[in-house]
Amino acid sequence: MSAQVLLVFCLLFIMHLINTLSYGLAAGIRTSRIAVSLALFNILLLVSRTANTIQGRLLASHVEHNIPSRYRRITSDFRWLLLAATCARG
């Protein structure tokens, strides 16, 4: 796994973890700390969208450079990325 794919792996894990943790907004509403909960949610959402922007470009570049020669490597890399998403959601 190249350094570029490892970075995408980490960013994808962060994105899905933040999306999972965003359900904590309901806990802030239950404890009547709505302003704090919304502020935290917006910060996490900003980090998640930034990670999505970065990982999209890195992944597209990686695929473009490796399509002609290494189909199996790309398949393996996508399986690692699916593992990152699955671990963050679980």
List the defining traits of the structure above:
single chain, 90 residues, mainly alpha, 4 helices
Summarize the structure.
With 90 residues, this protein is an all-alpha fold. It has helices at residues 3-21, 25-30, 34-66, 71-89.
Report on this structure.
- The chain is built from 4 helices and no strands.
- It has 90 residues and is mostly helical.
- It has one domain.
- It is elongated.
- It has helices at residues 3-21, 25-30, 34-66, 71-89.
- Helix 1 (3-21) runs antiparallel to helix 3 (34-66).
- The two termini are 23 Å apart.
Layout of strands and helices, then pairs:
Layout (H helix, E strand, L loop, with lengths): L2 H19 L3 H6 L3 H33 L4 H19 L1
Helix pairs in contact: 1-3, 1-4
Structural class: mainly alpha
**Beta-sheet strand percentage?**
under 5%
- How far apart the termini lie comes to 23 Å
Estimated radius of gyration: 16 Å
Strand elements, count? 0
Question: Uncertain spans, ≥5 residues at pLDDT below 50?
Answer: none
State the helicity in percent bands. Answer: over 70%
Series of secondary-structure elements, N-terminal to C-terminal: HHHH
The biggest sheet amounts to:
none
Number of domains: 1
User: How many helix segments?
Assistant: 4
- Please tell me what the overall shape is: elongated
